[in-house]
Amino acid sequence: MKKVTDERIVFENLKHIKTAFLVQTLGIILILAVDGTRNGYEHARSNPLWLLVLITAIVLSYSRLRTAVESERPGRKPFSYGKAVIGPLAAGITVFAAVALFSETSIMNAVILGAVLFAASLIPALLITFYRKKNQDEDDL
């Protein structure tokens, strides 16, 4: 059996996979919504499907980063990695300070929340910088 190399057929298969993925994700969200309505939010949140939806959303977002960077206008200069850290660091410190000063929770909760926001902002910022530098290096060749 020959391997299919026609780009139109490959593209059509990718469309079918995308449709199946969309239907599956919407079905999982519907199941969680029904479960949450019947048994309460805490019960729905303890369902392993909730974790699956979150992981799926994160993976999909990270995989779309590359496409988003490639579709940017040409000639956009990438940040250095040091500058890419400044925004997430400022966000983490701001959230830490706001939670520590204006909330009744402990300092440890403020540190955890600030660190999570810092990490969640840092990873995409570094990936975007990496992709922009890679595109710039490819354009220079």
What does this structure look like?
The structure is a single chain. With 141 residues, the chain is an all-alpha fold. Helices cover 83% and strands 0% of the residues. The chain contains 5 helices and no strands. The longest helix has 34 residues, at 107-140. The radius of gyration is 21 Å and the shape is flat. It starts with 6 loop residues before the first helix and ends with a helix. The mean pLDDT is 84.
What can be said about this structure in brief?
The protein is mainly α and 141 residues long. Helices cover 83% and strands 0% of the residues.
Helix and strand element order: HHHHH
Helix and strand content put the structural class at mainly alpha
The radius of gyration is: 21 Å
Q: Report how far apart the termini are.
A: 39 Å
Share of helix, binned: over 70%
The portion of residues forming beta strands comes to: under 5%
Please report the total strand number as a whole number: 0
Q: Given the structure, what is the number of helices?
A: 5
Give the overall average pLDDT.
84
Shape: flat
Low-pLDDT residue intervals, each spanning 5 or more residues:
none
